Amino acid sequence: MKKIYLGFLVPFYLYGQNLNQLVDSSLQNQLVASTKQNITSLQSQYKSVQNSYMPSLTVGANYSNTNEETAAVANSSIVGYAKINYVLYDGGKKGARFNAFKSNINSANMSLEALKNDISIQVVNYYFNYHSLLAQKEAKHQEITQLNAQYNRLVKFMDAGTATSDEIDKIKSRVENANVTLHEIELNLQTILHNLEYITAQNVTIESGSTIKDVQGKKENLRSDIKALEFDMKKILADARATKSSNFPMVSLDNTLNYYDMNYDNPAFDNGVDSQNVFKLNLSWKLYDFDATNSAYQSVYKQYKSLKSKYEYEKNKASIDLKLAIKSYNIAKLKIDSATSALKAATSTYETIQAKYQNGLVDNVAYLESLSERFSALGVLKSAKYDLEIKKANIIYYSGKNVWEYIK
Fold first, then answer.
1. Dmax (CA) of the chain
2. Confidence category of residue 6, pLDDT binned at 50, 70, 90
3. How crowded is the C-beta side of 394, counted as CA atoms within 13 Å?
4. 204 φ, ψ to 5°?
5. Most buried one in 20, 269, 275, 332, CB count within 10 A?
6. Does residue 202 contact residue 13 with C-beta atoms inside 8 Å?
7. pLDDT averaged over the chain?
8. C-alpha Rg value of the chain to the nearest Å
9. Nearest by Cα to 197 from 365, 29, 1
10. Which strand ranges, in their side-by-side order, compose the sheet holding 76-89?
11. What span, in angstroms and rounded, lies between the C-alpha atoms of 393 and 153?
């Protein structure tokens, strides 16, 4: 029973994580959390701006005392008031500010989706590159095992006087080179693990078996990062309109209720008024400002035109990127066919040369070359299959879809 309890205490990261789990973890990292907090902050700001355009109520009071009483100024007085103010029309600034905030929030949401997609495609690349390196590592291990077996075989032949030292040296050199390559592969594997740990903020042990769903026939959508640019354009255009609102009249109303408690030493000054309500409808219109408002508007509008040009550029680039991704995918499929044929040919050649080598019909140079080609072809085929999965993910990414939704 204790063993069962201990099993529940084993940390999750000791078990392998598939691609779905890695992506899920990465989409909860600090960078994503920070972006979500920024969106929440913008939403709070927007709510504050909305509330600021609601009618405002202000209350206040004051006490005064004078040494020279007049009809206008009592010896001592207490005045209290309640004031309601509301802007009826501000030249369209209110609507423009609301539109600017909504566009800014939409842009932030699209930027969050773009960030999540960028992280997802990065994790997908790490995952399949890791397994590609594992395939190369396995092929290299098998090559070293074969080389060591031949090395031990030749040592026995040399002891019997039927093999030369240069043949042994060549195999030894091959083993050393293969070991160097193996260490380089191991370093690259560790680098990927460290990068994934950085992205997911947890220890990582990668499990095999994950793939990407087929991407053929998928409809192209606008990428989230380009949608964010589109909303940024709308935000700046709304800012420009808010700036231009100063050229229009402003209409507001306010109503003030005053309460007076006047203490006159001279009863003749007391008019008997203890409360007063004042209603005002206000109109103000700035007729001329030496073109300051128009200059400010033109400045912001030019920012809009600049961002619009960038938007069109990125939109066209995204379309080209998708076409290139589809071409890369088709080439990746051809590479698998080519690698399959290459492995078949390399295996056949190796088996033929191995038989001739064991019968002394070819030297060990030809044998070692055929051995290396066979294991190299094996690693290339497995790498080509993993590369195809990456190419699938690239099509999903460039077609404006969420990569994490296509992992299986």
1. 141
2. very low
3. 22
4. -125, 135
5. 332
6. yes
7. 87
8. 39
9. 29
10. 56-65, 76-89, 250-263, 275-284
11. 47
Predicted TM-score (pTM) of the model is 0.84
User: Does residue 277 carry a pLDDT above 90?
Assistant: yes
- Cα separation, 170 vs 150, whole angstroms: 11
Q: What is the pLDDT of residue 350?
A: 83
Half-sphere exposure of 339 (CA within 13 A, CB side): 20
Gap between the Cα atoms of 133 and 44, Å rounded: 48
Return the HEC string of the chain.
CHHHHHHHHCCHHHCCECHHHHHHHHCCCHHHHHHHHHHHHHHHHHHHHHHHCCCEEEEEEEEEECCCCCCCCCCEEEEEEEEEEEEEECCCHHHHHHHHHHHHHHHHHHHHHHHHHHHHHHHHHHHHHHHHHHHHHHHHHHHHHHHHHHHHHHHHHHHCCCCCHHHHHHHHHHHHHHHHHHHHHHHHHHHHHHHHHHHHCCCCCECCCCCECCCCCCCCCCCHHHHHHHHHHHHHHHHHHHHHHHHCCEEEEEEEEEEEEEECCCHHHCCCCCEEEEEEEEEECCCCCCCHHHHHHHHHHHHHHHHHHHHHHHHHHHHHHHHHHHHHHHHHHHHHHHHHHHHHHHHHHHHHHHHHHHCCCCCHHHHHHHHHHHHHHHHHHHHHHHHHHHHHHHHHHHCCCCHHHHEC
Whether residue 389 contacts residue 320, with contact meaning beta carbons closer than 8 Å, is answered with: no
Rounded to whole angstroms, the Cα distance separating 209 from 342 reads: 25
Q: Which two tokens stand for residue 398?
A: 């460039």
Question: What does the chain come to in residues?
Answer: 408
Residue 1 has pLDDT above 60, yes or no: no
State how far the Cα of 193 lies from the Cα of 134, in Å rounded to an integer: 12
- What integer is the mean pLDDT of 40-57? 94
| pLDDT tens digits along 119-164 | 999 999 999 999 999 988 888 888 888 888 777 877 777 766 656 7
The least confident of 59-68, 183-192, 207-216, 385-394 is 207-216
With contact defined as beta carbons under 8 Å apart, do 87 and 94 qualify? yes
Q: Positive or negative CA dihedral for 356, 360, 362, 368?
A: positive
Structural domains present in the chain: 12-54+92-247+292-406 (1.20.1600.10), 56-89+250-284 (2.20.200)
